[in-house]
């Protein structure tokens, strides 16, 4: 009986471990973490995970106005380097099974062009069969006044 009590207490405490020290696709708990993992996968050239977490009907827009489907989005990022990136002012807005994510994005990559003030990003994540997939993203340069 004492052994069972110890096991129960340990089980309860293990649920209080907090945020995992190393974020992965399997332990991510929401759209904010999935957004970070997507950019990390692009940075690391982990194309299998990028592709796995893009919706088949994905749509992406970059600051110069070009629109990309899933295949061309992959080709776009495979053709360049993402040297560093930083996300700030991140907000998540749930809508049914979807999550809308907005944030300020600072990134070093020639694809998006210069943006001293950074970029404003809006993305939509969907929970499909217990896996989050990115269905849309729009990246707009912030204009300094």
Outline of the structure:
The protein is of the alpha+beta class. Helix content is 28%, strand content 36%. It has one domain (27-141): Nuclear Transport Factor 2, Chain: A, CATH 3.10.450.50.
Describe the protein's architecture and organization:
With 145 residues, the chain is α+β, with helices and mostly antiparallel strands. It has one domain: Nuclear Transport Factor 2, Chain: A (Roll), CATH 3.10.450. 28% of the residues lie in helices and 36% in strands. It is built from 4 helices and 6 strands. It has helices spanning 2-14, 31-43, 47-52, 70-78; strands at 54-61, 67-68, 85-95, 98-107, 119-128, 131-141. A hairpin with a 2-residue loop joins strand 5 (119-128) and strand 6 (131-141). 17% of the residues are buried. Mean pLDDT is 84; it is low at 12-17.
List the helices and strands and how they pair.
Elements (H helix, E strand, L loop, with lengths): L1 H13 L16 H13 L3 H6 L1 E8 L5 E2 L1 H9 L6 E11 L2 E10 L11 E10 L2 E11 L4
């Amino acid at each position: 009986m004492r052994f069972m009590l110890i096991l129960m207490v340990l089980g309860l405490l293990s649920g209080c471990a907090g945020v995992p020290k190393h974020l992965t696709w399997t332990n991510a708990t929401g759209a904010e973490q999935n957004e970070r993992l997507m950019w990390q996968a692009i940075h690391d050239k982990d194309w299998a995970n990028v592709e796995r977490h893009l919706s088949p009907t994905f749509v992406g827009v970059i600051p110069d106005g070009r629109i990309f489907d899933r295949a061309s989005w992959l080709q776009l990022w495979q053709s360049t380097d993402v040297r560093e990136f930083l996300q700030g002012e991140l907000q998540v807005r749930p809508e049914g099974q979807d999550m809308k994510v907005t944030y300020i994005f600072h990134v070093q990559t020639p694809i998006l062009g210069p943006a001293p003030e950074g970029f404003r990003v809006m993305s939509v994540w969907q929970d499909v069969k217990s896996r989050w997939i990115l269905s849309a993203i729009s990246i707009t340069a912030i204009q300094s006044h």
